[in-house]
Design a protein that fits this description.
Elements (H helix, E strand, L loop, with lengths): L5 H17 L8 E8 L4 E7 L6 E5 L4 E7 L17 E10 L2 E8 L3 E9 L7 E9 L2 H7 L14 H4 L11 H5 L2 E7 L16 H19 L2 E5 L9 H10 L4 E8 L9 E6 L6 H11 L1 H4 L14 H25 L5 E9 L11 E8 L3 H7 L2 H26 L2
Parallel strand pairs: 9-10, 9-11, 11-14, 12-13
Antiparallel strand pairs: 1-2, 2-8, 3-4, 4-6, 5-6, 7-8, 12-14
The chain binds zinc ion.
């Protein structure tokens, strides 16, 4: 694409305009089949469709991906992934990227160039088809061609400190006494084009985390003591930094990110709780943080334009206090949740999760369990089990705020 230079930019701009119009249409175009063929010299990937769709294709490196922006499609009639790798295509994922805008991401094993991308009208016994032709290329050539279309490149922020405003005093930790209800932000991990971990029965982590978040919101709402906000309340992708930004925008007093993991060994099970630390408590936690931090890459975000994180002494101070509070909360969580479900050994662990990096909001990440363990996957799919976890989480949140109030009494 980018090889075409200016022409591609113009085409991209035109396609964006077309997309903006068609995305408001009510009936979604449907995918009726997905096919891929390895022809040796090229690999062809085909979506069978019931009508023509606008599209835009670009590639991203590290890991190698082809990203196709499409209108929201009805995908119920077609398979949601490849059963095995075909040519350089390891697998593909489809999901909402933002409302009305869906994304198809092909994960590639090697540097691969998009030779052609086009929509074929009905003919030769087939209906509408979206076709991608892929050919092998060198890493250098791939790197030259790859990148976001110009309109998707994030604009540099004018004043770096504005990105993470930190007041001259440390944040007030006793919100209820000062501002009424404490604000809790619940962050269901993954979503949309990023399914997260995939369980033994095919259940997606993104669905488990959303169901759990809604259950927890209900439990917290019914206590009447909190204002509860979800970072996402639908099957949509949300970048890690946008989750943190949302927590800051609503003035959250506590950030709870929900996840569920998979590992190779099906016998491993148990819940674990993570708080932020530059140094991971163990190799497993470091690997997990690395995996969770890849969510943005999986959805086809190009992170090379992100400015490095701004730090100054105030952020450090606020962050250190937040980290201590997060750790205290994690301790309460482990105690309460241990009464309701199996725990992983060394339940409270530390690692560098990107989603826990709000400098002034105590933040924890709960890995609810292992979707690779059949028993645990089954439990997490059950509403009564999620309700038990939600009430344990609510008890620990109650305890956390009670302790803060006690500590801030003169
Ligand atoms: Zn996750």
């Amino acid at each position: 694409m980018a090889r075409l230079g200016k022409a591609a930019a113009v085409v991209a701009a035109v396609l964006t305009a077309v997309l903006a119009v068609s995305w408001t249409a009510s009936a979604k175009p449907a995918v009726t089949g997905v096919r891929a063929y390895d022809h040796g010299t090229k690999t062809r990937f085909v979506l069978d469709l019931n009508e023509s769709v606008p599209f835009r294709v670009f590639t991203l490196a590290d890991p190698y991906r082809v990203v196709v922006d499409l209108p929201e499609l009805d995908w119920t009639a077609a398979q949601a992934g490849l059963r095995k790798a075909i040519g350089p295509i390891r697998d593909f994922r489809y999901g909402l990227f933002k409302p009305g805008n869906a994304r198809l991401v092909l994960d590639l094993a090697d540097a691969t160039s998009v030779k052609k991308a086009f929509v074929l009208p009905p003919g030769e016994g087939a209906g509408w088809r979206f076709v991608l032709d892929l050919v092998g290329t060198s890493r250098d050539a791939f790197l030259r061609e790859q990148g976001l279309p110009p309109d998707l490149v994030p604009q540099p922020k004018p004043v770096p400190t504005a990105a993470i405003p930190v007041s001259m005093t440390l944040p007030d930790r006793n919100p209820r006494a000062v501002r009424g209800k404490a604000v809790i932000i619940i962050d269901p991990g993954h979503g949309g084009v990023d399914p997260g971990a995939i369980g033994v029965s095919g259940e997606y982590e993104k669905n488990i985390t959303l169901a759990m978040a809604r259950e927890l919101k209900q439990a917290l709402d019914s206590s009447g003591r909190y204002k509860v906000v979800l970072t996402r309340n639908s099957d949509v992708f949300l970048a890690l930094r946008d989750r943190v930004a949302k927590a800051r925008a609503v003035g959250a007093d506590l950030f709870v990110s929900l996840h569920a993991d998979t590992v190779r060994s099906p016998s491993v099970r148990g819940l674990s709780v993570y708080t932020l630390s530059e140094r991971a408590s163990d190799a497993e936690s470091a690997a997990l943080a690395e995996k969770e931090n890849k969510a943005d890459l999986i959805a086809g975000l190009d992170l090379s334009h992100e400015s490095p994180e701004v730090t100054n002494i105030l952020i450090d101070l606020a962050q250190r206090e937040s980290m201590n509070l997060s750790a205290a909360f994690a301790g309460d969580l482990v105690q309460e949740l241990g009464r309701e479900t199996a725990l992983l050994g060394n339940t409270h662990r530390f690692a560098g999760f990107a989603v826990l990096k709000a400098p002034d909001i105590p933040s924890v990440l709960v890995e609810l369990g292992y979707l690779s363990n059949p028993q645990e996957e089954r439990l997490l799919r059950r509403r009564d089990h999620r309700a038990k976890l939600a009430s344990a989480l609510t008890r620990s949140i109650d305890r956390y705020f009670a302790n803060i109030q006690r500590a801030s009494r003169p």
